[in-house]
Amino acid sequence: MDQRNSGLDDFTQFFHQLNEVPLKKQDSHLKLQIYVDNCSVEVFANDGETVISSEIYPNPLNMGIELFSNHGNVKVNSIDLWELKKSRFIFFGFNEQ
To answer: How deeply is 42 buried, as exposed, middle or buried, from its count of CB atoms within 10 A (0-12, 13-18, 19+)?
Structure first.
């Protein structure tokens, strides 16, 4: 996961990282489930066999996602996108006034 161009990143020198995790060699297919919210990305490969998560702080106007391969061509067979609803937190024992 490449944080180097993920948005607001000038708060620490350690944020610019390229994080990698090993994947077992499968047949020619790779299944990815990618979850993105306001400040994080989580990737589950092959039904959770390999998982990686990362903090990001994108510009709120930037709504793009980029998929790329460093080693050869990739064909995307399908992609499904869902917009998550905002969560609502209820704090018990707290009186709103």
So the answer is: middle
> What's 2's DSSP letter?
B
* 93 is a domain residue: no
Q: Which domain holds residue 17?
A: 1-21+29-69
**What single-letter amino acid sits at 61?**
L
Rounded to whole angstroms, the Cα distance separating 14 from 59 reads 19
Residue 56 CB neighbour total at 10 angstroms = 19
pTM of the model: 0.67
Q: Give the total number of structural domains in the chain.
A: 1
Round to whole Å and give the CA distance between 3 and 15.
7
CATH number of the domain residue 60 falls in: 2.60.120.560
Tens of pLDDT, residue by residue over 50-80, are 998 888 877 777 767 777 777 788 888 888 8
